[in-house]
C-alpha cells in the first residue's frame, strides 16, 4: 500500500510542530524519515497513528483520503505503529499483549487462549519472528520485546509499518537482526516508515530518505548516493564535522579507583557485581553497555547517590566509600547526570539559580546564610557566555531551554569547577548535533587539562569518538576492557550483548 | 596500567539464579527483628500464660443442633502451653540467628498461628471454649472484609485507587436497612448494592473525567457518607424507628454439605450474603483472569497508554470497573444490617473498609489471596469477641484493638514484595 501525506500541519500552543509536511512512502519500500530531536518526526507519526489530529492536510492510502479519529481507525486502515517506548504490559505474557483489543473469545467473552497462542505462532513463523507466546514480557530482552510489538501490528493486518527510533534500545547485533526483519517484511510487500536520527542506519536500510527540520520537510535524498555528512548538513542546516579531533591521551596518576564494588537491590539481586576499575588523570574512560546493565548504579556508587554493599571507592588515594554526596562533591568530583530534567536541573528555577545549584551554600555565592545575588549574577553571565548557552538570558527558567542548551548549562556548572574527576553520564542523549559537537569538544578540552574523565554512554559511536580506554558493562559486571585503538565496534557490541569471549 | 590484554571477566561472585546468597543488610535486620518478636511471644506464653493456667482446656467442636456430634477436645493447659512456647522459641531463635530467607513469610504465619492457639488454650483453661462457634463467626466476620477487598481489587486492577470503600460499606448498610424496612430484605440488598454503585460513579467521574487526586476523592466519600448517614440517623431513624427495623437474612443450610462436621457449619450454613461473597470471589477471579473484560481491565491498570494505542477505551474500562467495585462495596455494606442485626447504628462499619484495603494489599490484588487475608482479620475479630465473653483479665477495649494491631503487623511486616498494578492511582491523560 502506498501512503501519502499532503500538507500536514499540527500546532501546539506556541509551537508549530508540523508545517505543511508532505511525503510519500511507496508500496513495498522503506522510507527513512530523519531529523533531529524536535524536528517534528514524532508529532507527524502520532498524527499518522490517530493519536493526534492534524490542523490541516490529508492522509491518503493508495490514493484514498483517510480520516483518523482515534488509533483504532488508523489500525483499521492498515497502519501499524511500533513505538519507541514499547506499548507492552510487562506483567502480561506475549500472547496476552498481542491479542489485547482483538481477543479471540468463546461464548460469553471468555478468552480462547489456544486460538490466541495459535495466532501468535502463525505470525511468528510466517515472518521469522521467533518468540514464545507464553513468556512474560518483563523477562524478555528488548530485541524480543520489539518482535512482540511487530507481531502485534501484523496480527492487526497492518500493511504500513511505522517504526519510531526502533534501534535506540537495541544492541548492535540486535540491530542487524532487526534489519533482517525489515527486509523480510519488505519482501512480503509491507510498506515501512523508519524514523531515526542515526544517519548510517537510514543509509543502510532505506529506499528513500526524507529529511525534516523545524517541523518542515527540508529535502529528500537518495541513499545510494548521499553521504552521512550530506544528511547531517540537511538535518541541522549547516556543515557538521562528525568526528572528534583529539590527540592520544597521556594518562598520569590514578584519580579514581574502584575495587570489587558490589551493590544489591532490595531483594538481594546484584546491580553491581564486584566492579573494579580505575581512571587516571588525563584520560577518558568510556563505559559502554546497553541501558540497564549497571551503568547508572556505577555512577551513583561513585558519586555517593546510592550506598554500596561491599568493596571500596578510592578518590585520589583516599577511601571515600562512606562519604556523603556533598563530601565527594567538595573533594572534587563533578557529575553531569544522565537525566538532565530529573537530576541535572530544577526546571522551574532560573538559569542563574541552576548554575549555582551545587555551590550556592559556599562563598562567594553565600555569606552568613544569605545568597549573594551580585556574585551569582556575575558568575552566571560569565558561564552562559563561555559555554554558549542560548539564549543567554539568565533570568529565564532552565525548563525553557532546549535540550541541547539545558545540557550545555549543566556542563557549564560542572565543568567550571576546577576538579580532578569529571563523570559524564549520557552527556549528549537526545540533543542536537551542534550541541553534541560542542560538548564533545569541552570533554576533550577537560582531558587535555589533565583531568580524569569517566564517560557513560549507550551510543557506541560516542564511546569510540571520545574514549582512550573502553570498559563494557553487562549484567552489573565489567565484561571487557580495551584500549580504543585495539578494538572494533563489532567486538565491543558482542560484549555489550553478553556474547563476548 | 597495562590494558594491552583485557582481563577475562571475573566470576568470583556466587550467584544462585539472579539472587545472591548474601543477605542484604535490610534482610538481616528484618530477620533479627522478627526473631526477637517471636522470642518475646514465646516468653509471654511461658512466663505469663503458664503460671495462670490449671487443669485442662476444653474446645467444643460441635453446636448442639449439628447432625453429627463431635466430642469436645480436651488438652492439658500447662503442658500444651509449654510445647507451644518451645515451638515459638525454636522458630524465633532460628529466625534470629539464621533467618528463614525465602520462607520467612510462611514461618511468620505459622508462628502467629501457634501464638493464637496458645492464646486460646490459656483463655479456655478450666472452662469450655466453643471453637466451632468462633470458626463460624470467623467466616461471617471476614465476609465484609473480603468483599471490601474485592471492591478495591476491581477498582485498582483498572488503575483507580479506591480509598472510599469504608464509605461505600456504610452507605450500603444504611440504604439497605431503610429500604429493607420498607420493602423487604431483597429490595434492601439491591438498594445497598446500587448505593455503592452510585458512590463509585462519583469516584469514577471525578477520577477518570476530571482527574482529581484519587486519594482525596476516597477520603471525601468516606467523610461525606459518615456525615450524611449520621445526620439521617439522628434526624430520621430516631424519630421513625420503623425505618430502622429491617428483616434479617437467616442462615440457609445447604443439604448434606451442611452436615459435615466443622466444615459444614463454617461454610455451608451461612447467610445469603456470605454465599454471595464466595460466589463473587470465585467469579471475579475467573472474570479477571480468563475473559476479555478481565484482560482489558488489567491492561488498563498496568499500562493504559498501551491499551489506548490498541483501541481499548481507558475511560470506559475504568468507569465499568469502578462501578462494579462500588456495587460490591455496597453489597458488603448490607452484611452489617441485613446480614446481622437488622438495624443501623452510626459508623457501624467501624473501619472494616480500611481493613478490606489491607486485605487487598496482603492478598496481592488477587481475589483469592484477599479472601485468605480477610479470614485472618476475621479470625482476629471473632477471637476478640470470644474473649470478651470469657472471663479474661484483659480489658475489652484493649482486645478491640486486636484486628487493627493485626492489620498494622501484616501490612508493615509481612507484606514486602507485592506489586500493585503499575498504573494504580494515575489518571490517564490522552494528549
Give structural notes.
With 501 residues, chain A is of the alpha/beta class. Chain A folds into three domains: 3-236, Rossmann fold; 241-332 and 419-501, P-loop containing nucleotide triphosphate hydrolases (Rossmann fold, 3-Layer(aba) Sandwich); 346-416, no CATH class. Chain A has 17 helices and 22 strands. In chain A, β1 (3-12) and β2 (15-25) form a beta hairpin. The two termini of chain A are 45 Å apart. The mean pLDDT of chain A is 89. Chain B has 431 residues and is mainly alpha-helical. In chain B, a hairpin with a 2-residue loop joins β1 (15-16) and β2 (19-20). The termini of chain B are far apart. In chain B, 46% of the residues are buried. At the A-B interface, α2, α3, β11, β12 and β22 of A face β2, α1, α10 and α11 of B.
Poorly predicted runs of 5 or more residues of chain A: none
Q: What would you give as the CATH superfamily of the largest domain in chain B?
A: ABC transporter involved in vitamin B12 uptake, BtuC
Q: Which range does the strand content of chain A fall in?
A: 25-35%
CATH class of the largest domain in chain B: Mainly Alpha
Instruction: Describe the main β-sheet of chain A briefly.
Output: 6 strands, mixed
Shape of chain A: globular
The end-to-end span of chain A amounts to 45 Å
Number of helices of chain A: 17
The percent of residues in helical segments of chain A reads: 25-40%
End-to-end separation of chain B in angstroms reads 54 Å
Strand order of the largest sheet of chain B: 4-3-5
The amount of helix of chain B comes to 55-70%
Helix-strand category of chain B: mainly alpha
Tell me the strand percentage band of chain B: under 5%
In the CATH hierarchy, the architecture of the largest domain in chain B is Orthogonal Bundle
Annotation, overall tally of beta strands of chain A: 22
Secondary-structure element sequence of chain B?
EEHEEHHEHHHHEHEHHHHHHHH
Summed up, the domain count of chain A is 3
Amino acid at each position: 500500500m502506498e501512503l501519502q501525506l499532503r500538507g500536514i500541519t499540527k500546532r501546539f500552543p506556541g509551537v508549530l510542530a508540523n508545517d505543511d509536511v508532505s511525503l510519500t512512502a511507496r508500496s513495498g519500500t522503506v522510507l527513512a524519515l530523519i531529523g533531529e530531536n524536535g524536528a517534528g518526526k514524532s508529532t507527524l507519526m502520532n498524527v499518522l497513528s490517530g493519536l493526534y489530529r492534524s490542523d490541516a492536510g490529508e492522509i491518503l492510502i493508495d490514493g484514498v483520503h483517510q480520516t483518523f479519529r482515534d488509533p483504532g481507525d488508523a489500525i483499521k486502515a492498515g497502519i501499524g505503529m511500533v513505538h519507541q517506548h514499547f506499548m507492552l504490559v510487562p506483567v502480561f505474557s506475549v500472547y496476552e499483549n498481542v491479542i489485547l483489543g482483538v481477543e479471540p473469545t468463546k461464548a460469553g467473552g471468555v478468552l480462547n487462549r489456544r486460538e490466541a497462542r495459535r495466532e501468535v505462532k502463525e505470525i511468528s513463523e510466517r515472518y521469522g519472528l521467533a518468540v514464545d507466546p507464553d513468556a512474560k514480557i518483563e523477562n524478555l530482552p528488548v530485541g524480543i520485546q520489539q518482535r512482540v510489538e511487530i507481531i502485534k501490528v501484523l496480527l492487526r493486518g497492518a500493511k504500513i509499518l511505522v517504526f519510531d527510533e526502533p534501534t535506540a534500545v537495541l544492541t548492535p547485533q540486535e540491530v542487524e537482526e532487526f534489519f533482517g526483519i525489515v527486509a523480510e517484511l519488505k519482501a512480503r510487500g509491507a510498506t515501512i516508515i523508519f524514523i531515526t536520527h542515526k544517519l548510517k542506519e537510514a543509509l543502510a536500510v532505506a529506499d528513500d530518505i526524507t529529511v525534516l527540520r523545524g517541523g518542515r520537510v527540508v529535502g529528500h535524498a537518495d541513499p545510494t548516493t548521499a553521504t552521512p555528512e550530506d544528511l547531517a548538513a540537511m538535518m541541522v542546516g549547516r556543515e557538521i564535522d562528525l568526528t572528534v579531533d583529539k590527540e592520544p591521551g597521556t594518562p598520569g596518576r590514578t584519580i579514581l579507583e574502584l575495587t570489587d564494588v558490589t551493590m544489591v537491590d532490595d531483594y538481594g539481586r546484584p546491580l553491581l557485581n564486584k566492579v573494579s576499575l580505575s581512571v587516571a588523570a588525563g584520560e577518558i574512560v568510556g563505559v559502554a553497555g546497553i541501558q540497564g546493565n549497571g551503568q547508572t548504579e556505577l555512577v551513583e556508587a561513585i558519586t555517593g547517590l546510592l550506598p554500596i554493599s561491599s568493596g571500596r571507592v578510592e578518590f585520589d588515594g583516599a577511601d571515600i566509600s562512606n562519604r556523603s554526596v556533598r563530601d565527594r562533591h567538595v573533594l572534587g568530583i563533578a557529575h553531569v547526570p544522565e537525566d538532565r530534567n530529573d537530576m541535572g536541573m530544577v526546571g522551574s528555577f532560573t538559569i542563574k539559580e541552576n548554575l549555582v545549584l551545587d555551590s550556592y551554600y559556599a562563598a562567594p555565592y553565600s555569606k552568613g546564610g544569605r545568597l549573594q545575588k551580585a556574585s551569582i549574577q556575575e558568575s552566571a553571565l560569565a558561564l552562559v557566555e563561555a559555554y554558549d548557552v542560548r539564549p543567554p538570558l539568565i533570568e529565564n527558567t532552565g525548563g525553557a531551554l532546549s535540550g541541547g542548551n539545558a545540557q550545555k548549562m549543566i556542563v557549564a556548572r560542572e565543568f567550571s569547577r576546577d576538579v580532578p574527576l569529571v563523570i559524564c553520564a549520557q552527556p549528549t542523549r537526545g540533543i542536537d548535533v551542534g550541541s553534541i559537537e560542542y560538548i564533545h569538544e569541552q570533554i576533550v578540552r577537560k582531558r587535555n587539562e589533565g583531568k580524569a574523565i569517566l564517560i557513560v554512554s549507550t551510543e557506541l559511536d560516542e564511546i569510540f569518538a571520545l574514549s582512550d580506554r573502553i570498559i563494557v558493562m553487562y549484567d552489573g559486571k565489567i565484561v571487557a576492557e580495551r584500549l580504543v585503538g585495539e578494538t572494533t565496534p563489532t567486538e565491543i557490541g558482542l560484549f555489550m550483548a553478553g556474547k563476548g569471549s | 596500567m597495562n590494558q594491552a590484554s583485557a582481563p577475562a571477566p571475573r566470576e568470583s561472585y556466587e550467584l544462585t539464579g539472579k539472587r545472591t546468597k548474601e543477605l542484604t543488610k535490610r534482610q538481616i535486620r528484618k530477620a533479627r527483628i522478627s526473631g526477637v518478636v517471636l522470642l518475646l511471644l514465646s516468653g509471654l506464653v511461658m512466663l505469663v500464660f503458664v503460671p495462670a493456667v490449671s487443669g485442662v482446656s476444653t474446645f467444643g467442636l460441635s453446636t448442639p443442633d449439628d447432625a453429627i456430634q463431635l466430642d469436645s477436645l480436651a488438652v492439658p493447659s500447662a503442658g500444651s502451653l509449654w510445647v507451644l512456647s518451645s515451638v515459638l522459641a525454636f522458630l524465633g531463635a532460628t529466625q534470629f540467628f539464621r533467618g528463614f530467607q525465602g520462607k520467612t513469610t510462611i514461618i511468620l504465619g505459622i508462628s502467629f498461628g501457634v501464638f493464637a492457639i496458645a492464646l486460646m488454650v490459656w483463655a479456655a483453661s478450666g472452662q469450655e471454649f466453643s471453637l466451632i462457634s468462633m470458626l463460624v463467626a470467623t467466616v461471617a466476620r471476614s465476609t465484609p472484609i473480603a468483599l471490601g477487598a474485592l471492591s478495591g481489587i476491581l477498582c485498582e486492577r483498572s488503575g483507580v485507587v479506591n480509598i472510599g470503600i469504608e464509605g461505600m460499606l456504610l452507605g450500603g448498610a444504611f440504604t439497605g436497612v431503610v429500604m429493607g424496612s420498607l420493602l423487604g430484605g431483597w429490595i434492601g440488598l439491591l438498594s445497598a448494592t446500587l448505593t455503592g454503585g452510585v458512590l463509585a460513579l462519583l469516584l469514577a467521574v471525578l477520577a477518570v473525567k476530571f482527574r482529581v487526586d484519587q486519594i482525596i476523592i476516597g477520603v471525601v466519600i468516606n467523610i461525606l457518607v459518615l456525615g450524611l448517614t449520621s445526620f439521617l440517623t439522628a434526624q430520621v431513624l430516631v424519630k421513625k424507628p420503623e425505618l430502622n427495623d429491617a428483616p434479617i437474612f437467616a442462615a440457609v443450610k445447604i443439604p448434606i454439605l451442611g452436615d459435615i462436621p466443622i466444615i459444614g457449619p463454617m461454610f455451608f450454613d451461612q447467610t445469603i450474603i456470605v454465599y454471595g461473597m464466595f460466589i463473587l470471589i470465585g467469579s471475579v477471579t475467573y472474570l479477571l483472569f480468563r475473559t476479555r473484560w478481565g484482560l482489558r481491565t488489567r491492561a488498563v491498570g498496568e499500562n493504559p497508554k498501551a491499551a489506548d494505542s490498541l483501541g481499548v477505551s481507558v475511560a470506559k474500562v475504568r468507569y465499568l470497573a469502578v462501578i462494579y467495585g462500588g456495587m460490591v462495596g455496597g453489597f458488603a455494606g448490607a452484611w452489617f444490617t441485613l446480614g446481622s442485626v437488622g438495624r443501623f447504628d452510626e459508623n457501624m462499619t467501624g473501619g472494616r473498609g480500611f481493613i478490606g484495603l489491607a486485605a487487598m494489599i496482603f492478598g496481592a490484588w488477587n481475589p483469592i489471596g484477599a479472601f485468605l487475608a480477610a479470614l485472618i482479620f476475621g479470625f482476629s475479630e471473632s477471637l476478640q469477641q470470644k474473649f470478651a465473653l470469657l472471663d479474661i483479665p484483659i480489658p475489652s477495649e484493649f482486645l478491640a484493638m486486636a484486628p487493627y494491631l493485626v492489620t498494622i503487623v501484616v501490612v508493615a511486616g509481612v507484606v514486602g514484595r507485592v506489586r500493585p498494578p503499575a498504573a494504580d492511582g494515575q489518571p490517564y491523560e490522552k494528549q
